[in-house]
Amino acid sequence: MARFPKNEIISLVNDKPKYDLGASVGPGLHLGELLADAAIQTELRELPLRYGTAAGDVRVRELVANLHGVRADDVVLTVGGQHTLFMLAFLLCDSGDDAVVTTPLYPPVRSMLQAVDANLRGLTLSFDRGYRVDLDAFRDLLTERTKLVSVATPQNPSGVAIPRDRVAAMLRIMEEYCPDAYLLVDETYREAAYGDASVAPTCVDLSPKIISCASLSKCHGAPGLRMGWAITRDAELREQLVLGKFNTVVSNSTVDEYFALQVLRQRDSILAERRVRLAEGVSTTAAWVDANASFVEWVRPDAGAICCVRLRPAMFDDAAVHRFHQVLAREGVRVASGTWFGEEPRVFRLGFGALTKTDLDAALEHVSLALEKTIRAIA
């Protein structure tokens, strides 16, 4: 029997500490914010709870398509972005096919490819190199058996973006070494810019071999809607995604689709408010790293609600790293261990988007206390 490997990242949806710095989402959206309009309340009362379509509500698909410069027929709605990741692993990789993934990475990307018995080849993105893609190392991983290359921009867990010209360079290399392979670009955090910073353009227009996926979970603060999408200009693959969706979940919830429609219609105000919060969060985190520079270092993210922080190797040996996490748990704070993502234990993902400014300040103060207590214990 095929099995999905266990990863402790599942604790993020099971346990709730006092201060959760392990979360990867931005400020949460509340249902009441979407129900303020009386017309929406009337429409919702009259919403029929029937099956939706396998491709997804055309009104939602049109809005997503307009934001990416594609046709509505290029968009398939999915049950969160993770549903897209699962279907593409199943559709594109047979047993023994090569799939290239970056590491560290969001664990289910690895798990889903392992579940279909793909041969994973990891492109290491190192903390010391700022989690930047090395094109020579990428080229060395490709073979004629490569069927899928999976990247995220901005990346999870680092929040570091892959520049559009670097994605284009990766495509050129793929055309030479594995021309039949697809490049999956997870753009879930793309619109989670900081304040007035410009939003990176989508990569979906670079090639018909690119598949873009995203969701309403991170930038829009609505992970509870379980609404994502896949965009492909390959008609055959798009048909397979629709059939895959029908054979796994039939359709999205029509209630989720209705609220997704409202989120996308109000996206400008929703994103603007959250970008202010994210700018505040990354600024607060930067100040905290500076204040604790003798203990920690970080890679500043390009966008999103997350970043990678490293306990300084000169200060924290393996035993001290383990002790730090124990002390931090006693302080009521959770961070996301780097080991979940394939990173070294002294790296952790810190989420600065979900908490209010007051709670983020308090949480970071507890992390500082945990650092100091750990160092005193080993002195």
Notes on the protein architecture:
The mean pLDDT is 95. Helix 3 (58-68) runs parallel beside helix 9 and helix 10 runs parallel beside helix 12. This protein has 12 helices and 13 strands. It folds into 2 domains: 8-29 and 269-378, Aspartate Aminotransferase, domain 1; 48-267, Aspartate Aminotransferase, domain 2 (3-Layer(aba) Sandwich). It has helices spanning 31-34, 38-45, 58-68, 81-92, 107-115, 135-141, 164-177, 235-248, 254-265, 267-291, 318-330, 357-378; strands at 19-20, 75-78, 98-103, 119-124, 146-152, 182-186, 210-215, 228-231, 296-299, 306-311, 333-334, 336-337, 347-351. Strand 3, helix 5 and strand 4 form a beta-alpha-beta unit. With 379 residues, it is an alpha/beta fold. The longest helix has 25 residues, at 267-291. The strands form 3 sheets. A 7-stranded mixed beta sheet has the order 2-8-7-6-5-3-4, with helices on both faces.
Our count of helices gives 12
Distance between the termini: 50 Å
Helix-and-strand structural type: alpha/beta
CATH superfamily of the largest domain: Type I PLP-dependent aspartate aminotransferase-like (Major domain)
SSE order, one letter for each helix or strand? EHHHEHEHEHEHEEEHHHEEHEEEH
